[in-house]
Structures are given as structure tokens and as C-alpha cells.
Design brief:
- By secondary structure, the chain is mainly β.
- It contains one helix and 18 strands.
- The chain has two domains: 86 residues, Lipocalin, CATH 2.40.128; 103 residues, Lipocalin, CATH 2.40.128.
- The protein has a 16-stranded antiparallel sheet that branches.
- It is globular.
- The chain starts with a helix and ends in a 34-residue tail after the last strand.
């Protein structure tokens, strides 16, 4: 019968069963020795390469659809701004040899350091000096070509009117409840199955908004504002999925379904 210690040795990948000397701080990382036994120590994977900082980066706050800040970087210089591109502040890229990124912003005569931890070629975690919350930085990328053309966005619960949308290049024309507006679109580098874009109304000082799209079929997408829980269904005209009616609970008469009425308690006696 195989001894338990021998079985465990076979299950530990990368660790031999040969007895080793006691723990030594100078030993190679990845193995720890204790009492003559070899113990395999799992190490976290190395950070992915940053791939350079050149380009436009959108800083997003998890749980919020608004873009907090935009970095435009070229070489060792750049600009940082919010919704109004005419009001920007300079930034400087700080050289580092540890694979991380760092920029400094000059605000009101003081320097603010922002450490950038790579999550992939198009994504970073941004930690600003003195801030408690991290931000997600996403690099601008081309918009997916399949988004071109006409779409309809509907609230699956029927609480809001459908939005008619037409995308041409990096501009989207929207019509909702009889009001039309134009939105400029920016693609974001993808690190997963979702398709993330940023939209900005063509008004001076208009906010950037982060939208996350998930493909259901070639003609149907789920759309969310940032990583909010509520979602809409985006489909080609005449291609609404059959399951959409399952969710309908209109409160303003938009489509079939059960009215979303409010229950009012009777007055006390």
C-alpha cells in the first residue's frame, strides 16, 4: 500500500520528495524547508506587462458609470482632465524599473502621485496618493466594427421609453421620448468577454459615461451603465428576443406586461 507521504509528494507539483536542509533565507523563492521536509509554496502570478503608457486612459470608479478623469499620455508627458477638455492639468510620467507605472499631476502648485498597477495590456489599477479608493484605468481602443448601424435599446421592465440609436463611426445619434442628441463614443481595450465603451454627449462640459455591453447573439446585447446591476436590452430593429416579454412590467405604457403599481397601506383606524 502506498504511504500517505508518498501520495502527497506525487500531488505536489514542482516539489521533489528528497529531504532538504532546514529553511534558509537564501534559498530560491518558491520552496520553503522545514524540519528536513520540502514544502511547495504557491506564489502569486507575475503582473502582466504594462505595454507602455502612451494613449488615452479613462479612469473609472467601480460601481459608478461616470468617468472621473482622463489621461492623455505621449512619451514622458501628458495632460489630465475631467469632462471639460479645455481645463486640463499637466502630468509627468515617472520612470520606474519595477514594471509598474507612475505619473505625477501638478494641482494648485502641489504634486499628486498616482501609482499604476498593470492588469493587462489595456487595463491598470490607479492608486492616488492620499486616496482610499482605487480606480480602474482603461486604455482607449477602436470601437468594435459590428456596432455600426441602427439599434433599439429597451428597458426590459418597461419603465422607460425605448431609445432609437444609430452609430456611424465614433458618433451615435439617439432619439428618446422625441428628444434627439448626439454622443461621441470611445472604445476601451477589452480584458474579457464584455465590450466596454465610453460615451460623451456633445455638450460643453458633458460627463463621460462608461457603458458595458455583453453579447447575447449577433443581433442582441445586454447593456449596463458601468458595472451597475440594472441593465437594458440592445437589439437590431425588429430583432427583439422572444424572452424580452418575460421581464416586461411597464409603469408608463411602454409595451405589454403587468403594470408596476405601488401598494398603499390602508390608513390606521
Amino acid at each position: 500500500m502506498m504511504r500517505l507521504s508518498a501520495l502527497l509528494a506525487l500531488l505536489v507539483v514542482g516539489c521533489g520528495s528528497t529531504a532538504l536542509p532546514p529553511e534558509n533565507d537564501n534559498d530560491n523563492a518558491g520552496h520553503r524547508h522545514s524540519g528536513g521536509e520540502a514544502v511547495c509554496v504557491e506564489r502569486s502570478p507575475a503582473a502582466p506587462p504594462l505595454g507602455g503608457l502612451d494613449g488615452r486612459w479613462f479612469l473609472l470608479e467601480p460601481g459608478d458609470e461616470d468617468v472621473e478623469m482622463v489621461f492623455d499620455i505621449e512619451g514622458d508627458r501628458g495632460r489630465a482632465y475631467g469632462e471639460d477638455e479645455s481645463e486640463s492639468i499637466p502630468l509627468v510620467v515617472v520612470p520606474r524599473d519595477d514594471g509598474l507605472g507612475e505619473v505625477t499631476l501638478t494641482m494648485n502648485g502641489a504634486e499628486l502621485h498616482v501609482l499604476l498597477l498593470p492588469r493587462g495590456p489595456g487595463s491598470m489599477l490607479a492608486i492616488a496618493q492620499g486616496e482610499e479608493d482605487a480606480r480602474l484605468a482603461r486604455r482607449q481602443a477602436p470601437l468594435p466594427a459590428f456596432l455600426e448601424g441602427r439599434w433599439t435599446i429597451v428597458d426590459p421592465r418597461g419603465r422607460e421609453a425605448p431609445v432609437e440609436l444609430e452609430i456611424r463611426g465614433d458618433l451615435a445619434s439617439l432619439v428618446a421620448e422625441g428628444q434627439a442628441r448626439t454622443v461621441r463614443l470611445f472604445g476601451l481595450a477589452s480584458d474579457g468577454p464584455s465590450i466596454d465603451i465610453v460615451g460623451q454627449r456633445q455638450d460643453r462640459g458633458a460627463d463621460y459615461e462608461w457603458l458595458s455591453l455583453q453579447t447575447v447573439s449577433p443581433d442582441v446585447l445586454i447593456v449596463r451603465e458601468g458595472d451597475e446591476e440594472e441593465f437594458g436590452v440592445m437589439h437590431r430593429p425588429g430583432m427583439a428576443p422572444p424572452w424580452l416579454a418575460t421581464f416586461a412590467r411597464p409603469s408608463r405604457g411602454y409595451g405589454p406586461g403587468v403594470p408596476d403599481t405601488e401598494t398603499v397601506a390602508p390608513p390606521p383606524d
